[in-house]
Amino acid sequence: MKLQTRFIPFLALAILALLFALWAGLLRLGWMLPALPNLALAHGPLMISGFLGVLIPLERAVAIRQRWMFAAPLACGVGWVSLLFAPTLGGILMTVGSIVALFILIVMVRREPVIHTVTMAVGMLSWVIGNILWISGFPIYQLAHWWICYLILTIGGERLELSRVLHPTRGQIRIFGVLALALLAGTVLSMFNANWGACLSGLAMLALAIWFLKNDIAARNISHPIPLTRYIAFCLFSGFIWMGIGGALQMIYGATYAGPLYDAVLHTVFVGFVMSMIFGHAPIIFPAILGAPINFYPAFYAHLALLHFSLLLRVTGDLTNQVDVRKWGGVLNEAAILMFLGMTVYSVLRSRK
Ligand code: HEM
Known about the structure:
The protein is mainly alpha-helical and 353 residues long. The chain has a domain at 1-113. The protein has 13 helices and no strands. It is globular, with a radius of gyration of 19 Å. The chain binds protoporphyrin IX containing FE. Protoporphyrin IX containing FE is lined by residues 22, 25, 28-29, 43-44, 47-48, 140-141, 144, 147, 258-259, 262-263, 266-267, 270-271, 274-275, 330, 333-334, 337.
């Protein structure tokens, strides 16, 4: 397989956004570190529309290969860099990137009008709405539900597509559709009544997590004889559990605005669910983008185990108000993500030899 170097600048933009976002995450945890003036406040947008805003549309653009589609990761990439020096311009560029990404999904829905493409398109629409609210000056705690909805529906739609091999029944698909709609309804409701909105979307997340634990192909692959397939299944399975925990926390605590509970509610989803999914999808996404296979090493389990252990520590610190426990949990979260990046690069380079 020939390494496709032309997409490496996009990947570099995504990874740099992640590194800046991780730096900002440490500042938000209270670690005293040098910083750029806007960095700490940019943490959420850097993660959502910088790192994932480049990566997710890039994967779609590489798969469909229409030139205009690369405008989405490009706008998000230039957008996050601008955000650090000219926040207004950065916000506008990232919003434009999300709108182009929505058009990519519209193309996909027109080609294949089925539930998983529609789910992903609604996910993209949620990202666009969240971004428009953000650049209009809404506080992030008020629009974070839109960003959560974006990631759950985008990843959920993709999982639904990949689990088609199990031939889910019409009834199972219908239940999925109802739960996805309930998540969207909770997100809309959160704009008018923050507590009820958080409860409804929390309930939908918990139910969706149970749905995936039962119906995703991960459940079957957890005892698969191929080590890479088994590892991916562990990533997905544990990610769904964190989504369920995040949903339960939202139901218990309702709307959160800042501080430890806010941290726990957001990061059970963003770190527990989203990062686990990224760990699990990397062996599929990177070969598709780079044209280079990824070799599996049992050491992959080290960053996965560290991610879950550290998140457990962080959430325990959050829920019991132990500031240092939360701070160290956050640092170890980041160590797990850096280990994952290192292992992925090593694996791609080794597979070339
Ligand atoms: C892995 C290490 C991470 C650390 C240490 C970290 C740290 C933090 C902290 C301390 C906060 C503020 C919570 C509070 O108000 O007390 C925060 C907020 C937030 N984080 Fe993270 N985070 C991490 C990963 C992520 C990821 C992976 C995402 C998204 C995919 C994410 C998205 C957000 C968002 C959207 C907010 C809300 C921002 C705001 O209200 O301004 N974080 N994070």
